[in-house]
Amino acid sequence: MLSSFAPCPAGVRQVSVISPMLSNVYIDGLENEIPAYLTVDTSKYADDCTLDQAVGAGEISHVQQALDIIKNWSVSNKMSINVKKTKDMWICFTESVLEPPPVYIGII
């Protein structure tokens, strides 16, 4: 049985076995968009991408700046970020935890 054809104007359809690999090829240059001075790392797995940064006491997180760059990149490349599946996680190794700054996608 063959599936029907459908147009795919941008991005990669998620209905085939090869989709995760094609997705990685499509977003291959994403980490090059984030300047090294922001010290935010990216990791890609299947069709997901993560940002991470180790922020020491008294230092400032640059995750929001990196997220803004990725949002602009995704718009330029006709992709969208699924905000319902996007999560942030903060890990602190001290007893006194400060409220982490909120992160926003596409809100200025």
Layout of helices and strands:
Layout: H1 19-26, E1 41-45, E2 48-52, H2 63-76
Antiparallel strand pairs: 1-2
How would you describe what is shown here?
- The chain is an alpha+beta fold and 108 residues long.
- The protein has one domain.
- Helices cover 20% and strands 9% of the residues.
- The protein is built from two helices and two strands; from the N terminus they run αββα.
- A two-stranded antiparallel ribbon has the order 1-2.
- A hairpin with a 2-residue loop joins strand 1 and strand 2 (48-52).
- The longest helix is centred in the middle third of the chain and has 14 residues, at 63-76.
- It is elongated, with a radius of gyration of 17 Å.
- The chain starts with 18 loop residues before the first helix and ends in a 32-residue tail after the last helix.
- The model has no long low-confidence stretch (mean pLDDT 80).
